[in-house]
Amino acid sequence: MNDIEAIMRMAPVIPVLVIEDVAHAVPIAQALVAGGLPVLEVTLRTPCALDAIAAMKRVAGAVVGAGTVLNEADLTASIAAGAEFIVSPGLTAPLGKAAVASGIPFLPGTASAGDVMRGLDLGLTRFKFFPAEASGGIAALKAIAAPFGMVKFCPTGGITLASAPDWLAVGAVLCVGGSWMVPKGAPDPAGIEAAARAAAGLA
Asked: Could you confirm whether 41 is annotated as catalytic?
């Protein structure tokens, strides 16, 4: 799968995951997939993140990507771990060019019209809007998206189950990213599956 839009359209919510213990990776992935959220973003914020990506890849139905990819070294390591897509909090020319050259589906973070224009220069039209709430919320995204009819977004950052429907109602939004489905600590698979089911039901 080399189309970021196809990945974005698989479910209304992409879980944004901080995996503290690689032993938690598979139970979390299984619960999220069972609840209807197959696309999983594992952030590179912990020492075990790359091992977690490799472990989650073995879960049937899971489409596992790497988030918090900051540079070319992160990109290379994520691809080696088996990541199927790449998400970054922002967009730099070196990372953008390397990601495009690799051919992997890439969702760079944007928070301004200039960010979007830099992405368009690289041939990108699908972006993360981050940090969504702190960057001005829905009104800001609508204003940024207005000049770019060809562009679609995945807002991430501060979004909750309660606020997600308002974001998903925006025409430029294909899905949202969120971390509310998986609380910190040892995973509760039944609770995660129930939260995932509620999030998947927003479609």
From this structure: yes
